[in-house]
Amino acid sequence: MSKTVYFSPMAYSRYEASQTLPAKFDNMLKASGLSGRLKGKQVAIKMHVGDGITYSTIPPVFIRKLVDFIKASGGDCFITDHNVERRQPENRGYTSSILGCPVLDSCGYFGKYYYTKEADYKKLRHIDVAGLIHDADFLIDFSHVKGHGACAFGGACKNIAMGCVTDRTRQELHSLEGGISWNEEKCIHCGKCIKACNHYANSFSEPDYKGKYKVFFHNCTLCQHCVLVCPTKALLLESHDYHDFQTGMAIVTKSVLEEFEPANVFFINMLISITALCDCWGMTTPSLVPDIGIVAGNNIVKVETATLDLIKTENLNLEGIPQDYKLTGRGHLFEQIHGKNPYDQISALEQIGMGTNEYTLEIIN
Ligand code: SF4
Ligand code: SF4
Q1: CA separation for the pair 212, 276 (Å, rounded)
Q2: Nearest residue CA, atom 8 of ligand 2?
Q3: Does ligand 2 lie within 6 Å of residue 227's CB atom?
């Protein structure tokens, strides 16, 4: 398998349109060898169409370029995501007239069009592959890269695992989240664990620290402050932790990709407007780092690895994180922010045979 990962960087040397990212994207698509693989194919372009007032989703100019390239190559295409109608993609310029192809809900308007495969990983039991993904001949996984509280980052893997399936599969994936266990019998409801948390991640179901203890694992960085401060050892860091969620996403991604011939998938990661949280939060915060460019290739493990390698902690723009937010002090920038190692998502993909993380960057200007 080729180790090539294409990279079009933001850096430019002259004030010319040809030096800017959309022009480089054209060059990247031409260099990728995709053109000869698209003729006569129905291509699903899987995107995250965003939500609410987010403005950090992939700008329409890039999408239109991809659509025009597919059509010029003899293919036809549609853009698809989960729950498209509810997310109002037209608010971000995602309409068929602007993008040049339909923007469709992957499971149909009622969310009932899917094909189920059985799964056997903890609470993950059903992989409901979206009907339009199943029906397509070719998948282009077109992802906006950003941070994510539950799995450190959202890129090509998350775009498929959470976006090419039904609500049922998404819920089963989320049920794999975890990390902190609470022993009700040991708890004296002193509230120290709540006061110790800097991330608004834990709570009790009733006022005055009464009721059941809950952790919102999206916000939890697994810092263990609550565990350490608990006087009765009612809280424990479990062996079952965020890795289960990462592994579940890798399993679902593999299963979705198996719907396609190996030559009929391609991955494009946009490393611009890299924010701390996912676009589904319906808002956009300042970028964590300066825009980096576009990474693309035929293998998801290599594309995701190159993506993470290009995002450097030392380039952090402090405006990208909330004021007084405490970084974890360990690992990749996304681990510094969310407490979860983003490379674990890639390791999970590797372990189930999706490729290796060795790659060679081919710069496309
Ligand atoms: S582990 Fe840290 S972030 Fe998570 S609930 Fe406990 S104190 Fe909060
Ligand atoms: S610190 Fe421990 S004992 Fe106190 S409320 Fe939290 S879990 Fe219960």
Answers
A1: 29
A2: 187
A3: no
Ligand 2 in contact with 192 (CB < 6 A)? yes
Fold of 180-237: Alpha-Beta Plaits (3.30.70)
CA 96/CA 64 separation, integer angstroms: 10
| Residue with CA nearest ligand 1 atom 6 | 226
Mean per-residue pLDDT, 128-150: 96
How would you label 324-336 residue by residue, b for 16+ Cβ within 10 Å and e otherwise? eeeeeeebbbbbb
The mean predicted confidence, pLDDT, of the chain is 95
Report which bound ligand comes closest to the CA of 227: 1
Could you say which ligand is closest to the alpha carbon of residue 180? 1
Domain with CATH 3.40.50 in the chain: 4-175+242-363
What phi and psi, each to the nearest 5 degrees, are found at residue 119? -130, 160
Is CATH 3.30.450 the classification given to domain 4-175+242-363? Answer: no
Residue 270 has pLDDT above 80, yes or no: yes
Q: 364: closest CA among 19, 28, 35? A: 28
Residue nearest to atom 6 of ligand 2 (CA): 193
Atom 2, ligand 2: residue with shortest CA distance: 230
Alpha-carbon distance of 215 to 224, in angstroms, equals 12
